Give the backbone structure.
Amino acid sequence: MADFWSVIGTNSVRDAGEVDSALERISLRLDVLAPDALDRFAESLHEALFRIDRRELMEIPVYAFGAEFEQTSDHFLYARCACVLAGEKVYGEVLESGAGFELFVAPDAQGAESLLYLASGMYERKTGEQLNYLRFHSFESMSNTQGWSD
């Protein structure tokens, strides 16, 4: 997964502009990769999202428009994308303790969803074929049963 984290880098994701800038940098790094490396990147992304798919992180509320809301499964997926986008150190801290994940549930971080499609889009452009996701971990919310057990 070392190559994965070097492509991700370290990014601030405190607002939508920072999220967009981080995605652009990652897109440029992915653009020079061969199809097999894009496949490995996508697989590592799925694994990273799967590993932080945990109940206590989804229970962190969203604060928007002066109110508190529960995260939806999509919102939680995009928050996990923002966490990955922040980089290996921040991701590791969240994985270890959950600390700091509240930053990623903020509405401004939801644009990190695009991280899900960068490698697959480039793979398709380079090969004319779609990536085969069936062999990867599921990134869908609540798919990591160990993270949701009581």
